[in-house]
């Protein structure tokens, strides 16, 4: 799949902008704070209905306006597909092929993206919430039902925590009912994460081995607060631990185990990657990103769109070359923000370069 065109109205610093893209490499070129990342963010938002930079939709609307509109024309194997998101004070409206979508899971998955941004370099050493977000975004695109299970899990979790905080005397029988509901949705979330991490490890290890000049192997561990050995044991183990921790949860007034406490660990040649060199960690992230592309393609049968937000300046020459080689080999539509074309030693044939300045975007002639 590839996005043929996108149109913005009142989005960030763009009052009105439209661009037609190449199915290969598209470069947003310009100085800092001109709107390069805003345009790339709009593509990400059109895919996932969320920004990678803010949780507030209000920040996405031009400061002088009350509404914003992001629309794009997606080219898929079976034809063209228009997508649109309207933002306002009243909320958002998502449309697929001009039809409103009632549920988020009905919209997400139509257009899949893989984002590589400087903050991704914190995936190894950053907070567990970053790694859970990484899992949720990827799995949500590959399996929309995952988003439904996760949403229902979070709803019951909120109910359970609220009850623990407000009840004068906790009814153990009612808590057991909430435990059953939490185990139903939570076990499905964990099962899907377990399968995804196994597939991700297989793909990422192959890529990391090549990037490291065949010197390093990469392993990924699923660190769950629920102690289980087999995937089939997850629900019963989760339920058992919830029951076992009743006294602790009542005292602390929160839920101590479940997918909301999940984490993942990375190991390079058996060593925890949080102790690896910065170069090794960057190779690891690069391997992960290229593995995301392979997994999405494997599961959905369609190439995702790759978004590179100012990452070339974060990588050394070797890793820049490996990234560009991988992009060309995967044959994915790619969007790159940069202040310079220096790292593009050989300009690919299938490329469009866009000059971005003060909220205006113009295609440059080759």
Automatic annotation (TrEMBL):
Q: Which residues bind ATP?
A: 30-37
Q: What InterPro entries does the entry give?
A: DNA-binding_RecF, DNA-binding_RecF_CS, P-loop_NTPase, RecF/RecN/SMC_N, RecF_2
How far does the signal peptide extend, from start to end residue? Answer: none
Q: Which residues belong to any copy of the RecF/RecN/SMC N-terminal domain?
A: 3-360
The answer, when asked if Zinc is one of the entry's keywords, is: no
Pfam families recorded: SMC_N
Alphabetized UniProt keyword annotations: ATP-binding, Cytoplasm, DNA damage, DNA repair, DNA replication, DNA-binding, Nucleotide-binding, SOS response
Keyword DNA-binding among record annotations: yes
Cellular location of this protein?
A: Cytoplasm
**What's the main place this protein lives?**
cytoplasm
Q: What family does this belong to?
A: Belongs to the RecF family.
Function, please? The RecF protein is involved in DNA metabolism; it is required for DNA replication and normal SOS inducibility. RecF binds preferentially to single-stranded, linear DNA. It also seems to bind ATP.
HAMAP family given for it? RecF
Give the protein's recorded name. DNA replication and repair protein RecF
Write down the species. Answer: Streptococcus loxodontisalivarius
Q: Kindly list the organism's lineage.
A: Bacteria, Bacillati, Bacillota, Bacilli, Lactobacillales
Q: Coding gene?
A: recF
């Amino acid at each position: 799949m590839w996005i043929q065109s996108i149109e913005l109205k009142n989005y960030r610093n763009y009052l009105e902008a439209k661009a037609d893209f190449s199915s290969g490499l598209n470069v947003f070129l310009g100085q800092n704070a001109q709107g390069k990342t805003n345009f790339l963010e709009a593509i990400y938002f059109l895919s996932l209905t969320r920004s990678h930079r803010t949780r507030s939709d209000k920040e996405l609307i031009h400061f002088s306006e009350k509404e914003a509109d992001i629309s794009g024309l997606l080219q898929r194997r079976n034809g063209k597909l228009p997508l649109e998101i309207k933002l306002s004070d009243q909320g958002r409206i998502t449309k697929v092929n001009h039809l409103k979508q009632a549920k988020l899971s009905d919209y997400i998955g139509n257009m899949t993206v893989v984002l590589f941004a400087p903050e991704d370099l914190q995936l190894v050493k950053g907070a567990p919430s970053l790694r859970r977000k990484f899992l949720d975004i990827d799995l949500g695109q590959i399996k929309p039902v995952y988003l439904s299970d996760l949403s229902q899990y979070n709803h019951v979790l909120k109910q359970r925590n609220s009850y623990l905080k407000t009840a004068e005397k906790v009814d153990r029988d009612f808590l057991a009912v909430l435990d059953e509901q939490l185990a139903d949705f939570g076990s499905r979330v964990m099962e899907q994460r377990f399968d995804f991490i196994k597939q991700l490890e297989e793909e990422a290890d192959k890529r990391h081995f090549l990037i490291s000049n065949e010197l390093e192997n990469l392993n990924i561990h699923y660190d769950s607060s629920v102690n289980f050995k087999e995937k089939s044991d997850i629900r019963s183990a989760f339920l058992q631990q919830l029951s076992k921790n009743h006294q602790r949860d009542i005292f602390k007034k929160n839920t101590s185990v479940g997918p909301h406490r999940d984490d993942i660990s990375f190991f390079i040649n058996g060593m925890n990657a949080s102790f690896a060199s910065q170069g090794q960690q960057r190779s690891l992230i690069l391997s992960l990103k290229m593995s995301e592309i392979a997994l999405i393609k494997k599961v959905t049968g369609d190439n995702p769109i790759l978004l590179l937000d100012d990452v070339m300046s974060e990588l050394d020459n070797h890793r820049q070359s490996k990234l560009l080689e991988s992009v060309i080999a995967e044959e994915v539509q790619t969007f790159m923000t940069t202040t310079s074309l220096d790292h593009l030693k050989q300009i690919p044939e299938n490329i469009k370069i866009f000059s971005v300045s003060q909220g205006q975007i113009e295609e440059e002639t080759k």
